[in-house]
Amino acid sequence: MAPRQSKTAKRSKTQNGTREVTSEVTSDSRARNQLANQPNLTPKSRIHKPKKGALKKELKRVELYGKKKKREYTEKELDLPKLNMAISPGVVKKSGKKGKKFVDDHDTLVMQRLVRTINDAQDSVNESKLEKAKRLEEIREVKRQELERKEQAKVSKLEDKKQELKDKASAARILRRRNAKGRSKEEIEQEKPKKKKVSFA
User: Fold this and answer.
1) What is the pLDDT averaged over residues 61-75?
2) What are phi and psi of 128, to 5 degrees?
């Protein structure tokens, strides 16, 4: 006959058999609520499988009319960098206007024009038509003076170039004359072609 078990042994045996590991989520309501509020982290697939009817329709259309040609973009449109070119990081190529035109510090006309045009844009004070006309006339006058000065500079540059060419030509002419005077008459005669003499025996 088997030995008799004590009550404590029996109790421990039954407890060991039924013991389970339960997570906090099922037992703790607070943890369960936090888990419920978690966002769904697995992203949905963007590729949707077409339905059977739509697929048949598409296949029939391809069979009849052929596949749709996809537009091919050129490298210029895609703005791709050319091969074998070093691309410095962080440097963005500027497109459009090439550079800024800097104004000379002592250029009073341009400064006046800029100040007046900026003031004209900023001043939104109610003024009479006469005052407005007067202000606009001042701006026009400054612009006209600026244009005149530009034209004058262009003309003077052209005149300087003409004078430079004239000076070069005259210097070359004087040099040729000096060289011609320096040569003796004998040298000039030597340069002339000699008459051929024919003797009969």
Assistant:
1) 83
2) -75, 165
